[in-house]
Design brief:
Layout lengths: L1 E4 L2 E5 L5 H7 L11 E3 L5 H4 L2 H8 L9 E5 L11 H4 L4 E5 L6 E3 L2 E8 L7 E7 L2 E6 L6 H9 L4 E5 L14 H11 L3 E5 L3 H5 L2 H12 L2 E4 L8 H6 L4
Parallel strand pairs: 2-3, 3-4, 4-5, 9-10, 10-11, 11-12
Antiparallel strand pairs: 1-2, 6-7, 7-8, 8-9
This protein binds zinc ion (ZN) (2 copies).
The site of one zinc ion has 4 residues, from loops.
């Protein structure tokens, strides 16, 4: 995800292909303009391109710049941010549970409660002026998750929904659990993403529509290359 909060640009979770997709967009997204790269966790579907993106942000290390936000285990134990590239950024903020605010340009980022996932994982609560955006990455459902995100009172909740309905014992939300989170957090806008095959088969757009009908919020099912004007979407929903 490439966020533009006013002048501040933050790349969150640059997975495989992130750099190529950024540069091949029309018009391209320019990694040299990034103020920060932020990782929710070290898994490769979220961090596969992080070293390449740091190289691009810092012109191969020739221009030391930008902030890297990441949990400690993404930097130390089998680091998916390769150590040589950790030297290229101006500042590393090691994300801790409910840590921050970490300041990036004119954006404040606070970490969520620790997610229940195989590696150290935190969501992010962004504040830019009046706009509050929360990103809820991968992890198992528990009540503390709902409480933490509800407390952040996000206008926009971006939520990873990997599973539809299954009895697999894995550290990812099912659709019904994601729906319960959204019901508890009550954002004005919910953006669903990170779909597994069963979710894709279940028609994410129809599921998003059901959230709009049931909760009176705006709900968007993400797809590749989706661009969303968050302020416009938030403004489209009545108080
Ligand atoms: Zn993961
Ligand atoms: Zn994931």
């Amino acid at each position: 995800m490439w966020f533009r909060f006013g002048e501040t640009q933050i790349h969150v979770d640059p997975g495989p292909g992130a750099l190529v997709r950024a540069l091949s967009s029309v018009p391209p997204f320019n990694p040299r303009e990034l103020d920060a790269i932020a990782l929710s966790h070290k898994h490769l579907d979220h961090a596969g391109d992080v070293t390449a993106m740091i190289e691009a942000m810092t012109s191969g290390g020739f221009r030391k710049r930008g902030v890297l936000l990441a949990p400690e285990d993404a930097l130390t134990h089998e680091p998916t941010v390769l150590p040589y590239a950790q030297e290229f950024v101006e500042r590393i903020d090691v994300v801790t549970e409910r840590g921050g605010p970490y300041r990036i340009g004119d954006v404040d980022v606070r970490a969520s409660i620790r997610h229940v996932h195989a590696v150290e994982t935190y969501g992010m609560h962004f504040t830019h002026g009046d706009l509050r955006v929360s990103y809820l990455p991968c992890g198992r459902y528990f009540q503390g998750l709902v409480d933490d995100y509800a407390q952040a009172r996000p206008d926009v909740l971006i939520i990873n929904v990997l599973r539809f309905r299954d009895s697999m014992d894995v550290d990812h939300l099912t659709w019904d659990q994601a729906r319960a989170v959204i019901e508890g957090v009550r954002p004005r806008v919910a953006i669903l993403q990170h779909f597994g095959t069963k979710m894709l088969e279940a028609d994410p757009r129809a599921l998003a529509q059901s959230l709009e009908d049931d909760f009176g919020i705006r709900a968007i099912a993400a797809r590749d290359n989706l661009e969303v004007d968050l302020n416009t979407e938030v403004a489209s929903v009545g108080v």
